[in-house]
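Sequence only, no structure available. Ideas?
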Amino acid sequence: MPVYLADLGFSALAIGAIVTSTLIGTALLTLWVGWVANRHSRRLLLLVSALLMAATGGGFALITSFWPLLIIAFVGTMNPTSGDASIFVPLEQTVLTQTIAAR
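Reply:
I predicted one. Tokens follow.
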């Protein structure tokens, strides 16, 4: 993502702000989903998460202005790191706990 933003002509400070916004937004969204996942349908939450991820990618593909991208980065689910740190992790963990019988 930073290379893409550099190709769009953003400064290092703007790229850092967008990447930081992405990480903070994803962390907050992941925490929130972890708290509410057991109260709602996991299937619905996974579907909404997938749609949010697709909308985030579409926003980054279509929009090239700094402020809209900063907002999309914060609200969306794009992960600029190589690891898997997203809202899908707590959702998958709650689904796994539902697949085994209680002792």
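The chain has a mean pLDDT of 86.
Hope that gets you unstuck.
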